[in-house]
Batch of 3 targets.
Target 1
Amino acid sequence: MPANQPPKFSDAALAEYRQLLGRYPTQRAALLPTLWIAQREFGWLSDETLDYVAHLMELPPAHVRAVVSFYTMLHRKPVGRYLLDVCTNLSCRLRGADKIVGCIRRRLNIEMGETTPDGKFTLGSAECMASCGTAPMLQLNQDAYVENLTEESILKLIDELAGRDN
Amino acid sequence: MERILTRWLDIPDLRKLDVYVGNGGYKALRKALFDMKPEEIINEVKNSNLRGRGGAAFPTGVKWSFIPKDSKKPVYLCCNADESEPGTFANRYELELDPHGIIEGIAITCRAVGAHIAYTYLRGEFTVQKRILDAAIAEAYASNYLGKNILGSGFDLDVFTHRGAGAYICGEETGLLESLEGKRAYPRNRPPFPAIQGAFGCPTVVNNVETLANVPHIINRGADWYKSIGPEKSPGPKIFCLSGHVNKPGLYELPMGFPLKDLIYDVGGGILDGKALKGVIPGGSSFPIFTAEEAVKVNMDFESVRAAGSLMGTAGVMVMHEDTCMVDALKTIAHFYHHESCGQCTPCREGCGWIEKLVTEIEAGRGKMEDLKVLIDAASNMEGNTICVLADSLSMPVKSFVPKYRDEFEAHIKLGRCPFKDRDGKAGGLSAAAGH
């Protein structure tokens, strides 16, 4: 999104939004799905984006912000191209999640919650993601799970992702 | 034993509509639409003694019967796919591998309670699972198992998926409803119960994915067949989620009442590296831990686990061996509930934070003996004093870990460090746990 340009949904996103409205008896119920569209469109949810969503949905901006701040998957600041959310809950820790986190930190030279200076990787922690039988695990870009992680497999994944655009 | 809920292990591609139908799929829906009155469906499920699989174990048919028969308002069904209880991963595979089983359960349930719209609320992380379920829903619409005038029966039903965005409390049924309505997921005071005033102020049934997946089998084969599996008061097949220090972690479908010892040592292949068992959480991290001695005597059904002093919850069985630092394990659990407390009720918001802080201090070797009493007091004082049971979900682990592993807590305090780690606080304990 160019700087200083107020955010606006693409035509496809607007069509998707209008279709969503038909699913619920209230417009407000479409808020979370609409925020997901916004995050997909803009990568993260800036103040301007939230104001746009509030205006679009005829909701008080304060309500939109209150909702966004409740949910951990909605980003209020930019994240790297590859977001690695490592589960640090009990079942994953029992199977070595701490070592996986340590491995990523050392390889990327960032701490939990940080993004590499080139904007490529963000390391995040997540609570249990329902993958305890294949622990330790992480979720890549809030989509596919990468399971049964080992120190070797996590380094291989990082190298593979790092090489994708080069 | 015949696999019922995890048929996907025997039937490749069960997730596809033609394979599902080829294996008897949607026969139960036809029966529910053409051969049974709504009341008869409810009675069949009531008679089956099916109990909710989402953690609370409430009788499903009874829950359905609370929906007013002559409601002037629309009735909704919410399928709870917010699976978030640590240690639990059954719904995830059901969504991935048997989505039509869930859709058929949803459709039969809607027919029973008179709902024409169903929402499946998936946790935000279930991106892949939502894609699979959406594809299956589209297939079901295309073959008129959903939509207008289903199979010519005159019954209409729309099914929508709704994605959360990362908050454990959305799995609590009234938190789910608030979230569905586009709000923060603050659990509601009850009464009114969702059956009277649920989604959008209308009568609503909220059922877990696995609960709904049981329904087509009950309708196909009858309540008596269902009751013949497992103990009478909590019958049926059950999916157990085995994780932690076992050789074969994973999902296992077994009859209710299966011995926990056999689940760990036989089905689960025994303890990792041949080590000794130290503790088992039987139902997801919200519930009291069993010591090794207690665990090997318990049968896994709602009544037996309760009688032994814990709860079966979601059957998320977390196994810990002798090298596990139980203070660190409790710290992990306390961090989770503090992080996930919605903040509405003071005892939970403050209590979970206080407990996390104390356990963290003890683990770091900075604890005092009197902290152990404060932990129990704080846990006791938040129990039952809040809108929902999240506070109890931390209270129960605290009140079981501290007395059952008291020597470990005391050792941390006396030594001034974690006895499982070396003097630099590095090697050993949970932080050194090996991967694969």
Target 2
Amino acid sequence: MLLIHCPYCGPRDETEFSYGGEADIARPLEPEALSDAEWADYVFLRTNAKGRFKEQWVHTHGCGRWFTMVRDTVTHEHGETGVFGGFEPDAVG
Amino acid sequence: MSGPQFRLPAHVPMGRRIDREAPLAFTFNGETFTGYAGDTLASALLAYGAFPLARSFKYHRPRGIWSAGAEEPNALVQLEAGGYSQPNLRATQVELYSGLTAASVNAWPSVDFDMMRANDWLSPIFPAGFYYKTFMGGGFGAGRWWKLFEPFIRRAAGFGKAPAVPDPDRYERMNAHCDVLVVGGGPAGLSAASIAASRGCRVILADEQAEPGGDMLAGDRVVDGAPALDWVAATLDKLDAAGDVTVLRRTTVAGLYDDNFATAAESVGDRFGPGAPAHLPRLRLWRIRARQIVLAAGAHERPYAFPNNDTPGVMLGNAVRHYAGRYAVVPGRRVLLGTNNDSAYRTARMLADAGIPVTVADARETPPASLAMEAEHAGVTVESGFAISAVLGDRRVRGAKISRILPDGETSGAPRLVETDLVGVSGGWNPALHLASHRRAKPVWNESQACFVPDGLSALGVRAAGAVTGAESLADCLEQGYAAGRDAARAAGRTKRSRKPALKADDSAGPAPIQPLWAVTSRRPGGRKGKSFVDLQNDVTVKDVALAARENYRSVEHLKRYTTLGMGTDQGKTANVTGLALMGMETGRTPGAVGTTTFRPPYTPIPFGALAGRDRGALFDPVRETPMFDWHAANGAVFEDVGQWKRPFAYRRGGESLEAAIDREVRAVRDGVGVMDASTLGKIDLKGPDVATLLNRIYTNDWSKLRVGRARYGLMCHEDGMIFDDGVTARLGDEHYVMTTTTGNAATVQAWLEMWLQTEWPELRVFATSVTEAYATATVAGPEARALVSRLDSDIDWSDEAFPHMAAVTGSVMGVPARVFRVSFSGEASWEINVPAHRGLALWQALIDGGATPYGTEAMHVLRAEKGFIIVGQETDGTVTPFDVGMGWAVSKRKDFIGKRSYNRPDTARPDRKHLVGLLPLDRKVVLPEGGQIVTDPAQEPPVTMLGHVTSSYRSPSLNGGFALALLKNGRNRMGDTVHILKLDGGADPARVVEPVFYDKDGGRLHG
Amino acid sequence: MQRYSIISLARNALTGHRNWPQAWRSPAPKLEYDVVIVGGGGHGLATAYYLAAEHGISNVAVLEKGWIGGGNTGRNTTIIRSNYLWDESAAIYEKSLQLYEGLSRELNFNIMLSQRGVLNLAHNEHDLKEMSRRVRAIRGNGVDSEILSPAEIKKLVPAINISRELRYPILGASLQRRGGVARHDAVAWGFARGADDRGVDIIQNCEVTGIDRQGGRVTGVQTSLGPIAAGKVGVVVAGHASVLADMAGFRLPIDSHPLQAMVSEPIKPVLDCVVMSNAVHVYVSQSDKGELVIGAGIDSFNSYAQRGSWHVIEGQMGALVELFPIFSRLRLMRSWGGIVDTCPDASPILSKTPVDGLYFNCGWGTGGFKATPGSGWAFAHTIARDEPHPINAPFSLDRFTTGALIDEHGAAAVAH
């Protein structure tokens, strides 16, 4: 049972979070330009790394923010977290 | 049973942990016994002698008490009766209470005469794994033999019985955080907790026994020149006085998980039995997150094997010491101790002090001179270079043989007979590595100490101290505890300074080397008579290990699985290492090369009820109720579970049948006005300048041109192009939309939006806020709906011109701000009125008072099915595209959206996929079965060619007969065809394929 | 091979069981094989067995990095059934069940198949509709399945609570009477013994570290015991498929997750069939030893560690004692974890790959054990003929490109 360090809230129990799988899978900007195989690669194929793995989590029962975390899928040791960019809330009236 | 003749008299200075002033009567196998407060069931029974109280798993041999703790393989009992009945408890861990009732398990008709003992006499044809070699079928056809024998085997197996009635007890969970969790309250654990506390740590010390002290509870140890138990008491006082220390007695740390999360089971009311005070839970399950852990879990003594080593009256050497020292019980008149290490001498010394004749058979040719001399001085006979080679007697030890022992376990010369009725055996110590193993710290073999020790722990924030590291002296345990506590405090970031206590133990000299000895049994042909057991609970013998080796089940895991070694309720605590060492001898490998199996949680068994805690009954899962729930319940609603929600399925009036109620509700909507509680639909407020862009990417259709005050239906797909939700989104202001989702997907859709907004499109300026529970929603539908809503106290103009279909209006309804959407899931003119949740019931009541008929989800289903509207999850199942359900009109060609690219894939673009169609049974009285499989040839033998299935099917009062929606392969090109829907009991119903709109095809009623 | 029987047991008893031969040999690997199977679990051993038994290809090595049957074969809850929704799944799982029904005799090794029935509970209206669809589809495929009322369920499983007052009451169930359980280790050992008897080399403690290719064709494998040349290589490594694919230079549509299972202490018989519930997440049966064997859910995160999180077990137990209140005082004796390779459509991959002569059998998720013989049988065909058998053709890798997925998310009690 992991103790995940939410970059916004600090260390919290795993049960407060939801898992979002592998990080850095960018949605293609022009899907129509892709072959079926390239599209399948984006939709279905995953690195599923054994060892260091960059993944994304969301603090569902907390701040609700998504972030990335690097975790070892063999030892479950986890380290640096990263935040996604975004607009400043003040920008919205 | 004669009296407690094996309890030492009060004048013998032993047994200080029992209270002779507090006798407790209890019942075992129907007979009445008496013990004392402080006794375990095992110690109280042993006071009456080491008689058989259990039968073994496979051979049903008589068994007695083997140990004094958690490692007990034999003495399993069924405690209490009725709802309090508890199978498979170890008598060695059951604290005695007044009126306790226990019985033997796994014996028929009784533990004294067990018919199943026949297995023992038939054992020559029942070696390890015999069942893999027979019952294959023979001439009786596939598996017939096994079918015949399996029930017998099942009945013979198992120990105790499940209670027949539900558990009356209550269990609780506790959550705790600490700097340092100390596992084990022996010398190392107390020492560690003490120093960690003095350095300002928040400490939790968990000890599985009724009182901390560990090995010191035997009462014969000395610290700083005084009884060690004085030091224990003083340390506990100090810990109790410290501010942030929790000492958990009777608390077994059961498992260690990632990031130093520990589970621990605390026995609370349990120790009082059924008469426990009502306010106490039976057990508390602690969930502890610790910065640092000190593992001071101790070690288990292991035996070496010899023929008939399972006879009642044979037990672990140190157990003899504990029963004598702690409980003043020595269940024998003359004691033989077999050992290969120093620990037996402490036992011998204690027994000698109590005036009991003792012989020590030490396998070592030259035991430490000081020990031997001291023992002999106390009157102990020491036989050097000897080991126990046989036990005489069946149901009770009647004597033993010892033989000169060679290093490989073979004996030489004629055995010597020893007169004895109590045999203690010590083959060394196995550190309790279980918790370390839970954290994946691989044990390593320590050749000189002949035991596995933990390794690689400190990187995990765990520090081992005491006997768990292989430490054998009290001095080492105290010192290691201090070091581990100090380092843990530092690692936890506590920097307060404190002095190192100067403690002097009674054994700073340290022990002499062990001489490994696993079994005294000849592996030569002919061998020795009698079975030599390695795993007492599962009846695994030395020969079984040899057989496994012979048949190439040589991996330690194959050994375990083939012979069942270590798979019992004790998980092989006293057996595993001996078994793998013997496998090593058979195959020319060291124990380290053979390796251990992985220890798995829990360390000792935990009741299921404790794991479930309070998550039972009404608290199993929250019930979600809308603000109108009480009205529904009071007005005949039959509820259905939709996710966590309770939704009215239909409202029964008087003695009306469910079917009649649904018919009536459907008619009310078609002919007058109905009202449905739609509060459970997901509602998400979307605000910001980029909402339209988001909707364009999320929904399949185009949202660029939705004006303020208008609503639109949308389909949401995953990237694979398959529908996963649908609903209406309305635009309430320039930068304000509200999205509705299906009831079951409300949270999923909210999370879906957030995921895309945060991880992929952070540039979009959109806030998504769930407002599902902020609003109550009443859907008013039917030709008389307008008349009804017009009578509401409201500033809204309800006319068709001002409030046309698919319009969204905000205004005041009954004095509160409301959001009203003119949308229809029934095909009738329909208004969805959203008011703040606290006004939901008032609105509902006003609509009912105004003449609306309440209708439930089933009438809603009929109404929408007549219009061919899909329900996500019913017409779709994750394999259905918008095109499949005939909603290509809702798929934009001009923009990209989630899932769009997938429609060009060969299989997804096929023109003959399954399509949504309508079905009209040829016999209008028939209602097709939902889920019914569609075929063209009803006479085909299975496997039949199934072309699709009925997704929704109802009786329609409007159509006066059955009708259905279905997914049918190439369905759009089968219009007018007759297909057949298979019945479960054979035969089929013919039906005509039609367009999936059955009612008001031109939609005129929407504007009514 | 010495045949096993009650007579051979009696005969060996006379010599103290000192003359039993090895169940399988442990030879040193040869330099070259016609076929190398990577992975000595049930599926890999079955593949080797059927290659030898059905296709006459016996110059085969099974390479196992640990001990045979040590992965998911030895960690699952031993449930066998073929009550799958889609035709493609029904075909392969039913083939497997039929092979299971004759397996003890075929292998001369008692795998203790116990066809005590598998019950799938329905707890709400939606469950009932799904069950109706499923049972009808299953029967259409010629597989046995029936629907039981709560009263009929209670008769079959007296320990179960059918009170309507339950938070999620039992409204009905489907039953596959031919479903049941088998002894998982015995399946691996039986196939190993049978394959070995037909000349297959089973090499334990031999880890594959690389897949050799030349011009788009596989030529052999690198192992911890040195290189081994092979004309064809079949990879069957549940919990490690992505790692092996990476060695061969491609990716798979697979995520690996921990899946936990557990047993109670052994008690006298109290449950005579397998009970599964999708909605509240329970699956439980009682082993011949008397333990309740219970499957928990998967952990949400990717992992190659064979252990899961505690909260998954707590959630599982809450559901179990709701359905079986008399189990509350039974005790959890042991819990453990395996690694399941899950596919997006919850269906397996039995397929040729972008590399000629290299075949993958993976992605069985939580449901691999029941498929063991069928999977091995079809995979052996695929390797021997270099083309899939019709029953595994739908499970090819290209379905993720064409979109012809076989979505079986409703098939297991486990949410994939």
Target 3
Amino acid sequence: MINTSSGMDLLEVKGLTVKVEGKTILNDLTFTLKEGASHILFGPNGSGKTTLISTLMGLPGYEVVSGQILFQGIDITNKGVDERAKLGIIVSFQNPPEITGVKLGDLLKLCLGKSSTDEFSPEEMAQVVAFNLTAFLNRDVNLGFSGGERKRSEILQLIFLKPKLLLLDEPDSGVDVESLRMISTEIQKYIEETGSSALIITHKGDIMEKIKATYGCILLKGQFHCFREPMRIYEDIKAMGYEECVACRIRTSEGWKK
Amino acid sequence: MSKENDLTKIPHEILQEAQKAGLELEEKNRSGTFMHLNQQTVTSKVNELYESKLELMDIKAALKKYPWLEEYRWKLVSKDKDEYTKRVAEDFSGGYFMRILKGAEIAFPLQSCLLITQRNLEQRVHNIIIAEEDSKAHIITSCLQHSTVPNASHLGISEIYVKKGAMLNFTMIHQWSENTLVRPRSGAQIEDNATFVSNYVCMRPVRDVQMYPVAYCKGKDSRVSFNSILYGHKNSLLDTGSKAVLTGEGSKAEMVSRAIAREGSKMIVRGMIEGHTPDCKGHLECKGLIMDNESFMQSIPELIATKKGVEITHEAAVGKISEKEITYLMTRRLSREQAVSLIIRGFMDVGILGLPDALNKEIKTIVDSSAAAD
């Protein structure tokens, strides 16, 4: 999100204003996401973080009033959810829906581009085992899954989809310590191996123990503040709270794309 | 045992249609096969491996051979119930008698197929199944009308006895046509520690089906489970449901139905559980999807309790496919159409039928191919 890196821009957002149910949630946002880097997005509840990720994914209900979203130079502002997914943008949901009768195993196969009658390859099956989801393959997607089980299922789907840009909405909320360690290790491994990028919403710093994030920023009342190293932002938030960030105007102008 | 086997009487294309409705022509994975074409039983045979475990014959032959069978006839369904039972009581062309012998466990399902190829035919059959003590079996019965036959009706009486400790899983697949009037009338009696699972799958358009099978859980710890997958399309009229009467100590009933209405179909999905003994239990779940403004869906769950201690519940929901689910699947690179189709196929989940793996796969293929055909 800052322009100190020599990396290429994967995603470019220009003057993005977004309304949800008639109310402006994001106000004139301009930023870039770098290729091959992880970006951490902090911010209090209601600041617009989920709105930003949902807008990038193109989910219904998020009205782009003005601005432009470019992914690898392609204008995707008006593209549908499935088109963006095919281009390589994949989101993991904070609260994914339950789908009656649709088996997790079949959904994972679809993510791999297989049909439900195909089998998993030994490598794919090894990943299912690593994610501790073997017993869930024949269960309805998310039905009766615990918080950790949902997150593991979301992240495995995401990895099977081989995205270029991972949008992770609070991958660390409602997760047990062990699951968190496992999924953050797997996310980091995927990012390193594929050179893909990530935008991660979090309230906590634990996830950064495994995920090596270069860039961080805070979203407050629909606007960005404080573009800098995520661990330092996290320490500041812990020490001073979000309101101090609003007051800290100097940092606000620090890292915008020139 | 009388054996008949003459598949040559059946036109090739209807055998192909029957295959799509679950009939396995090679009979490798079946313990026995029964076929009734129009007004005649054309096949009735038991796989050699199972000859000492079960009997399968035309009901008329069975009534001649076993005079005691009269004790089982018209006992669970009343002759005077309605105009259709009266007509079958007057005259009928046959039907199957299946008897799973005491203690026998039948790994492969028994199959039966009732076919109509004659125009303006009123097919009338009477079936009796006896699952003797501690036996275990699966039955798959497919009913179909040749799609080129303009008009026909099917009246079928079925009486099913599940004796002490027995387990019977009965799956009926209807593949009628847009011109068929269908009036099955069924009753089942379940004894001590016995389990009866009755599954109903209706995927093809049908002019008019009305059925309301009743299970009498008389035995101690007897169990019944009714599951149905109903796909109403092309102006189908389906008025279906089931009823469980719990009188046995600790008896249990479960009902699960999944119904989809589209293209001007009218569907009434009923369910009734009557608890007449303390500590009986029952649950009824009915989920419906209505896909357009031309269709109609009504869910009628009913619970009756006459004793203290009865515990029966129901949940019913009728609505549209959730946008959130569609969007979720689209984020996994499915198009909207693919997402809707996956949700519909999932909704008609054959997993609710409690079938063994191999049979589950077969029925899933039937359901998926019908749902995908639109």
